[in-house]
Design goal:
single chain, mainly alpha, 14 helices
Amino acid sequence: MDKQFEQYLLTSKDHAEKILLRYIPTEQGLQKTLIEAMNYSLLAGGKRVRPVLMYEAWKIFGGTEENLIAPFMAAIEMIHTFSLVHDDLPAMDNDLYRRGRKTTHAVYGAGMATLAGDGLLNFAFETALKASGRGHDDLVIEALKVLALKAGIYGMAGGQCADIENENAEDISDEVIEFVNEHKTACMIESSLMIGGILAGADAESVKKLETAGSYLGIAFQLRDDILNKTGTEKELGKPVGSDEKKGKVNYVAVHGLEETQKKVAELSSKAISIFDELYRNSGIEFAFLSELIKQMEARKN
């Protein structure tokens, strides 16, 4: 791995982690157990990809007021974590391990884990609203619109619905697979990039480019995940492998095979890189971190 990229990534992730810690709720009161479960989930590690993407998009478009974007960086990670907590529940994927440790429901029970997911989703919007009152409420409202849309029934929740309804399907079309990948995974990647651009004052055309790049990147990320679920090891992934097959999930790999899926990952990654390279050139920033990040994600092992 390139030394400059490695250091940049480490610094970016550390920065996102510090911002998240700034906004986590205090574990006190009669709802203390709920908040403990929320924080257990939030602080389970992970790549912090979404807040890192958001902050980098904000930098590309000349963002200067970190207090404006910081609440949204924490909020996007809270929403992502909420989706994982609910995804792991017995009623959904029934996973007992994630990132090498027990899932929230395995520690706190299904009921408290459900509440933890609910709490994280609601607290995300409480947190994002802390960006208001700084003289840029028009931008905050636009960012909130994107955050709500991409997480809701026309975004991530809608993708999860299609995913559940097509478990154990004997015949599944590419259209359904693409819908699930776009909505369940890519929408929150798109949201991260778009919000970064919006809060930096990017114009509508530029925000649309970020959305398109996010779609390419998000679908490529999911396809790579599907490949690893088939070929990775439990040690590498921090969770059981082959889980999709056991649950009767039909994904792109199952329909098109590993080789064709990796080709698709490369194609989508190339399209996203092309957009980011253009944005970096226009910004005058010399190190195209997001382009390099996509190259690394294309070949990731976890």
